[in-house]
# Entry
Amino acid sequence: MPGKDELFYTKKSTYDIIKEDEVEGAYAYCEEYKHYLDKGKTERECVAQAIALAEKEGFKPFERGMDLPPGTKLYMDTAGKSLILAVIGKAPLSKGMNIAATHIDSPRLDLKQVPLYEDGDMAFFKTHYYGGIRKYQWVALPLALHGTLVKKDGQSVDIVIGEDEGDPVFMVTDLLPHLSKDQDKKTLGEAFTGENLNILIGSRPDGADKDAEKEKDRVKLTVMKILNEKYGIVEEDFLSAEVEAVPAMRASDVGFDRSMIGAYGHDDRSCSFAALRALLDLEVPEKTAVCVLSDKEEIGSEGITGMQSAAFDYFVEELCSAGGSLLRDCYRGSFCLSMDVCNAFDPNFADVSEKLNGAKLGYGLGVMKFSGSRGKSGSSDATAEDVAMLRSLFAESGVTWQMAELGKVDQGGGGTVAKFLANRNIPTIDAGVPVLSMHAPYEIVSKLDCYMAYKGIKALFSK
# Structure
């Protein structure tokens, strides 16, 4: 007769399962991950980093007609904002692929296309927030500007201001408590509105003579002169620009024990880095292994760089054509881990979580049979057979993991890219790193959970 430990499902801390040398290896892995976070605060920066790392490992840009023997390493970049990488396996593509699908966009403040204005002898940038943010978290916070401006002649100008020592930072101002009587009566959504998330960028008027005092927009002019001198741009160039305001903070260890990482963008870069690193560390696999770093997940995976785009189909169809396989056969024989973060149980907000099915920090990779909202709306809901396959794979590979769910049933919920892969007839299941303060400017994860995401994806790729 089996004992209690065999009969009961009990979550265990990863620290109680793995040996100390693996803990040290996980912590070392996270040092590279922190560097990835600091250097990749936008989709474009993540793609550039990924390509640089991949090319060091022998990856080449995909070209139609290229030979694809087993072990070939290739990638396809879409608009500099999404990336698909693959290592060709020994089996024909008609047998399918093993896929890790992630996203590299994170909530932030985007500059509007006509952003610059002056009011009260101060210059500001107007913004349009991107993704699901809690607006009050973005005020009174040091911000950096990252982005690309494309001039009428097609020349691109990249900017990063606020990250280096000595750089200025920027900020959305907040109301002082001495005068907040009326604001305090409002809900958070009413007290902090999208149109008021204006970034303070300057206060020095241009010109020193008395006649200059009669001129308007003198502070705005100071700002534009600085930008023109440093980057050669004029105000009109913001019309064709993608400039993002992100927290001007570095990834740091959290806690006396240094067991956690605090940073901007764990959602979903904790998973995108794990997928990328797992693919780069892969030998010649049995099945072709594919890593997807997609864009636009936070706003529905739309557009040419989102997971709903035909770019993924184009890439895989080209690979199939080169090997004489049909795309539909490839998809049918594939398996996808939709790697996106899940929420970690927070005892400070215990009332929104259901303890039996919620993920815990430090207990390993969170596996979600479904995501979606309330009645599983928007979820692909993986089959029992897919969950069983993962259970077996992770047990064989020493991956610590836990079942997870995005909060109590009626509290809300969220979606991932899983359904867009499943809609292609690819068996898909959600998995990800548990996160505290998800979508906040500074999120927290466990180092061991990050490492187990890497280990879990590598196990799939090696299957």
Notes: DSSP finds eleven helices and 23 strands in the chain.
